[in-house]
Design brief:
Strand content: 5-15%
Number of strands: 11
Shape: globular
Mean pLDDT: 96
Oligomer: single chain
CATH topology: TIM Barrel
CATH class: Alpha Beta
Largest sheet: 6 strands, parallel
Radius of gyration: 19 Å
Number of helices: 12
Distance between the termini: 37 Å
Low-confidence stretches: none
């Protein structure tokens, strides 16, 4: 297992469509963690170029994350009403599979250390084909039921996404209510009680003591997103960086993409969340030009500020330094906890 080879039990979350860069993935891997290329929202050609850039920067292993395509079937009337609400700046809502087959074909031909999946688990045949090519296959799950599906499909490891995590919920079916969910620690213990696979929790893990907590609870490593968003290697928008450093609350919303995701509350969420339909990636395409324009003018109220609940603990350190400090902080916290038990 690649997790057994890491110097530090730290995995950089892919964070598609925002802060992730090849430079960030390479820096994390070079420092002894596991960096990830975010292939979501990227064309197969751009994914190929990103992988080549990481390979040029480091010989260390890294992973690539793909989105499992959903269904093109949505409530068309609700979608049309939402696009009208967005106004004339909205883009054309549409379905696409994010270059699914082309990306899989490339990764079979040019395998990386790990291929992970979000928004579902691919079929056992797809899992087997990637493993035969030389990659480990990881699946993102949000419940014990999803964990069992991924295990039965042949996954080598499970990323356990707690409800605290920033960005899109990795649920297989994006349920209508969606606000309920298990914390990373609770999910870790429930899955560990019945599934014998390496477990990599994510959600609310932004400093050394939090990393120590999940390691003590049975994690093979932790999967961190918000912690890396202030690194200089990340492409986080300046307005997003500023918001991360505040105590601003986060909330779950479908307003930006049509799929439930956690971000820092802003005016766009307040204006549109109540009417946003379950329609991914249709809504994502519709809001894309609006969000791009807001990023260009660095308007934090006009685009998605994805962040986990513990975002205020993120620090603006170079990625390699952050990996080492998080690992050292976890070791110190574990030693202090052990010392308290011997008093």
């Amino acid at each position: 297992m690649i997790l057994d080879q890491l110097d530090h039990p730290i995995v950089q979350a892919p964070m598609a469509g925002g802060p992730s860069t090849p430079a960030l993935a390479a820096a994390v891997s070079e420092a002894g963690g596991l960096g990830f290329v975010a292939a979501g929202y990227r064309s197969p050609e751009v994914m190929r170029d990103d992988i080549a850039e990481v390979r040029a920067a480091t010989e260390a292993p890294f992973g690539v994350n793909l989105f499992v395509p959903g269904s093109p079937d949505v409530d068309e009337a609700a979608l049309r009403a939402y696009v009208e609400e967005l106004g004339p700046e909205a883009g054309e809502p549409r379905f696409d599979d994010d270059g699914w087959e082309q990306k899989l074909a490339f990764l079979r031909d040019e395998p990386v250390a790990v291929v992970s999946f979000t928004f579902g688990c691919p079929s056992p045949d797809i899992v087997a084909s990637l493993r035969d090519a030389g990659s480990e296959v990881w699946a993102t799950v949000t419940s014990p039921a999803e964990a069992r599906i991924a295990r039965d499909a042949g996954a080598d490891a499970l990323v356990l996404q707690g409800v605290e995590a920033g960005g899109h919920r990795g649920t297989f079916d994006d349920p209508p209510g969606g606000g309920e969910g298990l914390s990373a620690l609770t999910l870790l213990r429930l899955v560990a009680s019945e599934i014998d696979l390496p477990l990599v929790p994510t959600g609310g893990i932004t400093d050394g003591p939090a990393l120590a907590a999940v390691l003590a609870a049975g994690a093979a490593a932790a999967h961190l997103g918000s912690a890396f968003m202030l690194c200089p290697e990340a492409s986080t928008n300046p307005a997003h960086r500023a918001a991360l450093a505040t105590e601003a609350p986060t909330a779950l919303t479908r307003a930006f993409s049509g799929r439930l995701a956690r971000g820092i509350e802003n005016q766009f969420m307040r204006d549109h969340d109540a009417h946003a339909p379950r329609a991914y990636p249709h809504v994502n395409h519709a809001t894309s030009p609006i969000r791009a324009a807001a990023r260009e003018r660095e308007d934090p109220d006009g685009f998605n500020l994805w962040a986990g609940q513990a975002h205020r603990l993120a620090r603006p350190l170079p990625a390699a330094e952050l990996v080492r400090e998080l690992s050292a902080g976890a070791l110190e916290a574990l030693e202090q906890a052990a010392a308290r038990q011997t008093r």
